[in-house]
Amino acid sequence: MLLTEGIEDKAKLRKVLEKIAECCLKQDNYHLAAKKFTQAGDKVRAMRALLKSGDTRKIIFFANVSRQRDIYILAANYLQSLDWQRDGDAAKNVVSFYTKARAFDLLAGFYESCARAEVEERRDYEKALAALGEAHECLQLCGEAAPKAAVTRVREHMDAVRKFLAIQELYADSPLEAVAQCEAMARLDLEPAVRKGDLLAFLVQHYVGERDYAAARRCLREMPEVAEFVDAEVLRLVGWSSDDRRKLQSLLARRTADGDRDSSDGEVQEELSDAP
């Protein structure tokens, strides 16, 4: 005999089903808990139980059949915790669920994450700009409710990415002007829209082409993670070694300890040999 048999009062039946679901949760029986919460009419708690199970297929299915805003958002949030960058279906479902929930501010945030992924993992600034454009459109759909800080941030990031792409196009016709503009950008803090390492890598490529290896090494010293931005063959060509960074860090540490805080990075680097 089922525990719920004979209970005709709907309120009592709902409470019994909720108690059963809570017991299932304590026993880590998340699927049964979700079923009982659903029978009790509490689909949000049912979804939360499914989220604990980590059963992505059932989470997506439940979100699609429930058609509730809160559940769409819960599902989309969960999918973002997965490796959505390598799972095209997961990314599509995130967009779909936020769109169905009309949670355009959250969708804008997801597109910003997409832009960062394009930059950090693939160094694809054109796709990053496209993702930022989607984020901007989503914020426009929010109307007056759009977070002003988010709108400002997305616009600034779009401007920075456009500038870097324009510099790369300019280089073919006016390399010196492109280099000058890139050097100016490298002095700014444009992370995460445009990474300093990518700007410096652009400059390194130019200086290597000009056989100005001393200038290339100066750029490398400013680079946060040299191996991430410049390949080993270029490093060998310019005579770069990991000892160069250690020397610079040691010299900076000594100057700080001595209280000489007014020295510029350029003055510090002058003390390092530029000889290959």
UniProtKB/TrEMBL annotation:
Is Chloroplast one of the keywords?
no
Q: Where in the cell is it found?
A: Cell projection, Cilium
- State which residue ranges cross the membrane: none
A Pfam family it matches = TPR_IF140_C
Q: Which keywords appear in this protein's UniProt record, sorted alphabetically?
A: Cell projection, Cilium, Repeat, WD repeat
GO BP: any one term: intraciliary retrograde transport
Q: Do you know which PANTHER family this protein is assigned to? A: IFT140/172-RELATED (PTHR15722), INTRAFLAGELLAR TRANSPORT PROTEIN 140 HOMOLOG (PTHR15722:SF7)
What's the protein name? Uncharacterized protein
